[in-house]
Write a structure and sequence with these properties.
The chain is an alpha+beta fold. The chain contains seven helices and 13 strands. The protein starts with a helix and ends in a 5-residue tail after the last helix.
Length: 264
């Protein structure tokens, strides 16, 4: 069975059994700084918050078998995100424990590339708590594209990436000449160096079939609003209408500027 078909089959079964609990949202589009930002407003996080209070120490290692999708390689397996905001949200997890702020390896990129084969998708990595990571076992994530059918770009931030890019915070951007794991890992290392990311400093990584983006992070939150890698794709999450209005008032690009590292 192909991975995409397997994801759909497992998601259907897990939803029927109550293991998969999608978070219902309303979608708002906020134009700002040349980007059609997508903001998803959550209807309720009560179930997720309750689950977090009773969560086991390592839910990606001690996972619910109903959320298991497939063994991707000898070093990685794939799980469904238990509380997805978008459908078919995949977690690509290391089999042998590594912390979430660890550098990615060629084996990580091999697993991610395998999951991206034959599909339009966005891979991303939240390197550490300040980059928006909620779990401490190393895992990459994958969501299907487009992020929202209401806007022309599959990834909203591409409106600026294709033009230069023109992002008002420190970042590094590149287009892979080859898509094998070694080439992707080499590009990733070059972008980390270019962005000034050293050691276990927090950052976000985003990857499509066409480009790779690294954004160093200064903090996780803008006011009460947590921002992870999807924010730098142009997709933000508001826990309620109050947070939506804070994003609208500040401007989504200023939200990103506030949690990223300033340009020198």
């Amino acid at each position: 069975m192909q991975l995409q078909s397997r994801i759909q089959t497992v998601a259907h079964r897990a939803l029927k059994k109550g293991a998969l609990e999608p978070i219902k949202t309303e979608l708002e589009v906020i134009p700002d700084a040349g980007v059609q930002f997508v903001v998803r407003v959550v209807s309720s996080l009560r179930r997720k918050d309750a689950a977090a209070r009773r969560q086991v120490w390592d839910p990606l290692g001690d996972y619910d078998p109903e959320l298991f999708v497939a063994d991707i390689s000898s070093t990685h397996y794939a799980l469904l995100n238990k509380f997805p905001v978008m459908p078919q949200h995949l977690l690509i997890v290391v089999r042998d424990y590594e912390p979430q702020d660890a550098r990615l390896t060629a084996r990580d990129f091999a697993a991610l590339a395998r999951c991206m084969e034959g599909s339009a998708s966005l891979g991303f990595y939240n390197a550490g708590r300040e980059a928006g990571a909620s779990q401490h076992r190393k895992h990459l994530q994958l969501v299907p594209l487009p992020l929202a059918p209401q806007i022309p770009q599959p990834v909203p931030i591409e409106a600026l990436l294709d033009a230069g890019p023109g992002l008002p915070f420190r970042h590094a951007f590149g287009r892979p000449e080859q898509t094998d794991a070694e080439a992707l890992h080499a590009l990733y290392c070059r972008l980390l160096d270019s962005a000034g990311v050293g050691g276990t400093a927090p950052y976000n990584l985003l990857l499509t079939h066409r480009w790779m983006l690294v954004v160093p992070r200064a903090r996780e939150h803008f006011e009460s609003i947590s921002v992870n890698a999807l924010g730098f794709a142009g997709s933000l999450l508001a826990r309620d209408r109050t947070e939506l209005e804070r994003i609208r008032a500040a401007g989504p690009m200023n939200v990103l500027r506030a949690v990223a590292v300033r340009c020198e």
